[in-house]
Amino acid sequence: MEEEQNQLRAALADGSLYQTDLDKAIAMQARETEIDAELTAALERWEILSA
How would you classify residue 7: left for phi > 0, otherwise alpha for psi between -120 and 50, otherwise beta? Predict the structure, then answer.
């Protein structure tokens, strides 16, 4: 997930994507947000299990 998130962030950092394919940029942004939430939940779960 982290690798996918890094790829999405790199693609979104290039502002031209918003000009050339706005729908794709919005979808990528939504996926990046999903991954962030999933990673946060996984880390929280890991913390609980480690305690």
Answer: alpha
**Which pLDDT score, from 0 to 100, does residue 29 have?**
96
Contact 32, 7 (CB under 8 A): no
Residue pair 47/20 in contact by the 8 Å Cβ criterion? no
pLDDT, the chain, mean:
95
- Segments making up each domain of the chain, as ranges: 2-50
pTM over 0.85: no
Residues 6+ apart with CB under 8 A from 25: 12, 17, 18
pLDDT at 35: 97
